[in-house]
Here is the input.
Amino acid sequence: MSFLRKGLIFFLTCLACFTVTITHHFYLSPVSATETTIIAQAPTVNLSQLPPEARNTLKLIDQGGPFPYLEKDGSTFFNREKLLPNKPNGYYREYTIPTPGVSHRGARRFV
Here is the structure.
């Protein structure tokens, strides 16, 4: 698989994860006008549009685990790129979405 194609797949996966995270945040807590604007501009996906691995990861998050990568899943996501609303350290968590055909953790995540 070419580097460009892998990069595109990674970008689209991150975009889907970002969208699910923003949508999940929107339903769980009150938001400011700035955050509402960000949410209104972000594309959304239905759970049925996500790959089965992503849906399984969401089920594990809802159940509180057990997660396949104990040292990494549930760890702090620091939002260094500032793509998500500014929150205190420790607010965002990351979880692995398994990548078929890969023997390691892979690059797909929910935040």
Notes: The radius of gyration is 14 Å.
